[in-house]
Amino acid sequence: MPPKLHLTHPSLEEKASLKLFKGIALFTPGGDLVYCIDPTKRSQWHLHLCATLQELLDLPEPPHFLVPCYTATIDRWLDPYTQQVKVSAEAYAPVLRYQPLLNAIFETDSLVWQPISQTLGSCDPLVLATYRSRFPQLWEEHDLVIGVNSPGSRQFLRPTATQPEVEPLILSEPEAQGYVLRLFVSGYSAATERILQELYQLLERSLAYPYTLKVIDIYKHPEQAEADQVSATPTLVRVWPRPVRKIVGNLEDATKILQILGATQY
């Protein structure tokens, strides 16, 4: 009789050291992302992620219709027979183009994500488009990349100039929303570079919470300028937290910038 195999289950500490977890990412049609990394591999995460989007974007109800079409899942587990770490990463067609971002947040290097076959009609663009009038925020771009550690607790990620992937920042106050900013410019020049450098220095020095600053050239993206009702440059737009606020023209007054951003309220 062959010897019996004794299968062991790693502890949470062992899972952390081996990076064993289940990850779920939920995108919006506009490109925002909420996700979780869970070494305990609990269920119901799709519901928590939908609830997070509802809260962040002030939706009338959780956008359950995004599941499964706008989701990606990854599972890293330890094969009990070979003691080797196995990885399964799958994504639906609408989010396959976000593979670099998925690899950044889940720290999976250049992993190739496998497409998930869709059943007929499950992700019909015409059907999904029927939700647009009721959930217009989901079709807008808010530059959100948010990790949900547990219901009510979030981790914000901020792109940096030297690290184009993401840099995790843990917030001590779960209710803090961070900042989402857009700087509209008319082409790139020495003046634009100076404004951007001074603005970065001000934000790094003065903001106590994470921020995302996206620079938009109105000549290349006039549709974005129209969507944000920008008619002059430079214009700094605070997209988040709500309500939207703007500074047009002079961006040299640091006190005025911080007042309009509402930084002193946090």
From TrEMBL:
PANTHER family named among the record's database cross-references: CIRCADIAN CLOCK PROTEIN KAIB2, KAIB-LIKE PROTEIN 1
Gene3D superfamilies noted in UniProt: Glutaredoxin (3.40.30.10)
Listed CDD domains: KaiB_like (cd02978)
UniProt-listed SMART domains: KaiB (SM01248)
InterPro entries listed in its UniProt record: KaiB-like (IPR039022), KaiB_domain (IPR011649), Thioredoxin-like_sf (IPR036249)
Domain KaiB per the UniProt entry, residue ranges: 182-263
Coiled-coil ranges from the UniProt annotation: none
GO BP annotation list: rhythmic process
Listed name of the protein: Circadian clock protein KaiB
